Amino acid sequence: MAENENKPSTATLRAYVMFGVLALIWAYFHWSTDSIFLTPRNLANLMTQMSVTGILAIGMLMVIVSANIDLSVGSVLGFSGAVAAYSLSVLDVGLVPSIALSILIGMSIGFLHGTLTAYFNIPAFIVTLGGLLVWRGGVKWLLGGNTVPIADESFKAIGQSNLSATAGWILAALALAGLVAIGFRAVRSARKHSAEGVSLSAVALKLAFPASAIVIFIAVMNSYQGVPVPVLIFLGVALVGVFLTTQTTFGRYLYAIGGNAEAARLSGINNRLSIVKVFTILGAFTGIAALIFTARVGSSAPDAGTLKELDAIAACVIGGASLMGGRGTVIGACIGALIMASLDNGMSLLNVRDFMQDIIKGSILVAAVGLDMYGRRHA
To answer: How far apart are the first and last CA of the chain?
Structure first.
C-alpha cells in the first residue's frame, strides 16, 4: 500500500517542518514591512486570499494522489465565476440558482475531464491542458471580452463579509469540542485494540497545539472584524477533504491507484470510476472557489483565475504531495497554500515587482519538486 496518513510520525514531522518554514517567512516579512505583516488586519486579508488557493489545493491534492494532474482549474474557476456573474447580472435568475449553477458547471467540467482521462485513455495532462485553453475561451465568449460587475450584496457577502465576534467564539467552542471527542475516540480505540494502556495526558498533549491554534486564530480575527466568511468556507471544504482522504474507502482507493494503478486494478478497485469521481470532486471545489473569488472582487473578468492552477499545484508539492502519486495529505496542502499566500502577501507589501514574484514562486515550485524527487531516490 502506498504511503498515506497511516504513517502519522512522518506526516507529523513534515507538518512541523512546514510550520517552521512558515514561521520564518512570517518573521522575515513582519520585520521587513515595519511590523505590518502580522497585524490582525493583514492576517485577515492573508487568510481571505489563501481561501481560494486552499480550496483548489484540497481538490488538486486528491487528483495528484491518484497520479493525475489538472492544469485547467484556473480557467474553470474563471468560467464558473463568469457563469455566476452572468446569471446574476444579465439573466437575473436569482442568488441561489446562480450559486448552484456555478458549482454544477465546475462539477460537469470535472466529470468531462475525468471521463476523457479514465475511459478514453487520454493523459490527464493533455486533457486539462486543452481544458485550460477551451474554458478560458469560454470565459471570453460568455463575457464578450468585458468585465461584468455584480451588484447583489448577498452574493458579494460570500467573499467580503465576516462573522460576528460571538459567532467566532461559538465556532471555536464547537471546534474544541470536536477535538476533545477525537481525543476520547482515539484513546478508546487504542485501548480496545491494544493490551497496553494509553495515557490521556499524551493525547491531551498531542491536541494542545491545534487547540491553541484555534483559540489564537479566533482571537486574532475577532480583534479586527471577525472570521472572514471565505475562511469559514475553506475550513468546511478542508474538513470534507480530510474526511474523504482518511475516513472513506474512496480515499484509500486514491492512494492505492496512485501508488500502483495495476495492482489496485487487480485487487478489485474500479480505477476508472475513481478517477472520474476525483475529477468531479475537484470540479465542485473549483466551483466553490470561483464563487468566493468572484464575490470578493465583485465582478467577473476574462482573465479571472489566471495561473491559479500553478498556485494550487505548488501548494500541494510544498505540502508534501508527490507528483508521482500515492503520497500527500490535505493538511499539508493547506499549509502549502498558506505558505504560497504568505509569499504573495508579503512580496506585495514589499512592492516586489510582478516579474520578480513570478520568478520567486516558480523557483520555489521547481525546488520543491526537486527535493521530492531527491527524497524518493534516497528513500
So the answer is: 16
On the 0-12 / 13-18 / 19+ scale of CB atoms within 10 A, 169 is middle
User: What pLDDT, on a 0 to 100 scale, did the predictor assign at position 376?
Assistant: 65
SS3 state of residue 148: strand
Q: What span, in angstroms and rounded, lies between the C-alpha atoms of 342 and 81? A: 24
> Is pLDDT above 80 for 49?
yes
The predicted pLDDT at position 125 comes to 95
**HSE-CB for 12 with a 13 A CA cutoff:** 8
Nearest residue to 3 (alpha-carbon basis) of 305, 320, 374: 320
Contact criterion met (CB below 8 Å) for 298 and 88: no
* Whether 336 contacts 57, CB under 8 Å: yes
pLDDT in tens, 223-270: 999 999 999 999 999 999 999 998 899 999 999 999 999 999 999 999
**Cα separation of 85 and 175, whole Å?**
34
Q: Which residues pair with 149 in a beta bridge?
A: 299
Q: How many residues does the chain have?
A: 379
Give the 3-state DSSP-derived string for 182-240, with helices as H, strands as E and coil as C. Answer: HHHHHHHHHHHHCCCCCCHHHHHHHHHHHHHHHHHHHHHHHCCCCCEHHHHHHHHHHHH
pLDDT-based confidence at 375, cuts 50/70/90?
Answer: low
CATH 1.20.1260 describes domain 8-161+229-354: no
Q: Angle at the Cα of 342 (from 337 to 345), degrees rounded to 5? A: 125
CA 237 to centroid of chain Cα atoms: 8
Mean pLDDT for the stretch of residues 143-147? 91
Confidence of residue 323 (pLDDT cuts 50, 70, 90): confident
**Owner of C-alpha cell 502577501:** 345
Tell me which of 2-6, 98-102, 105-109 is least confident.
Answer: 2-6
CATH 1.10.3470 range(s) for the chain read: 8-161+229-354
Rounded distance, CA 133 to CA 128, Å?
A: 9
How many angstroms from the chain centroid is the CA of residue 366?
A: 20
Q: State pTM to two decimals.
A: 0.91
Q: H-helix or E-strand containing 300?
A: strand 299-300
